[in-house]
Amino acid sequence: MSHLPPGHSRVRVRDRNENFFFWAGLFYSRNLWGFVTVRAPLGAVVLSLPIGCRTIRVSRETWYCYEDVYYRKVPAGYEVVEAPPRVLEVENVPPAHAPPYQPGDLVWVDPASLNVRTGPGTEFGIVAVVARWESLEVKGMSPGWLYVRLPSGRMGWVMEEYVAPKELASRG
Question: Where along the chain do the CATH 2.30.30.40 domains lie?
Fold first, then answer.
C-alpha cells in the first residue's frame, strides 16, 4: 500500500532503530514500494489496545491478546511481549468493569455534553462534542471506552461511564 490508513500512529520499539506504525491491531513497516503489514515487533509500545482484545490471566499476572499478539501494560501504554508461560492454561477474565454493550447496541449521552475522541484515552484529540440524549451506536470497546458512530456518521471514542444503554435511559 502506498499510504498508511488514517488514524495510524508511529510506534516506539525498544532497542530497535526502525520505524513501525500501528492501526487497528496491525503493524506496518516502510519498504521501497510503500508500506507493508509486518509481524508485531517485540518491544513495540502502543497507546491503546486494539478493539476486541482479550484480557487473560496466568498465575495472577495480566496479559492482553489480539490475533495471537500478546501485550502487557507498561507506563507508556501496552508493550508487545512473548506469549505468557503455559498459554494453554490461560483463563479468560472479564475486565473488572465489564461493559454491558455489544457492537450494534445504542446508547444515550448522559451528561450535558460529551467529548468524542480519536482514541480510547483522554490524551487523544477531540473530534466532536455530543449533547445529552444523543443516540450513539456502539461499534467496539476498549477497557472503559466505547468506539461509537455519531448521528452524523462520524466515528470516535467516548468514556463508557458517561453513556447509558438506550433502553435504560428511557425509563423515568
Answer: 106-169
Angle at 63 between CA 61 and CA 64, to 5 degrees: 155
Q: Which three cell numbers stand for residue 164?
A: 447509558
Q: What is the CA 79 to chain-centroid distance, rounded?
A: 14
Q: Name the helix (H) or strand (E) containing 98.
A: none
Predicted TM-score of the model (pTM):
0.53
C-alpha cell at 15: 532497542
Give 61-113 pLDDT, tens digit per residue: 888 888 889 999 888 888 999 988 765 444 444 444 444 677 888 998 988 99
- Half-sphere exposure of residue 30: CA atoms within 13 angstroms, side-chain side: 6
**For residue 164, is pLDDT > 70?**
yes
Cell of 104: 450494534
Domain 106-169: give its CATH superfamily: SH3 Domains (2.30.30.40)
Nearest CA to 12 out of 57, 37, 63, 46 is that of: 46
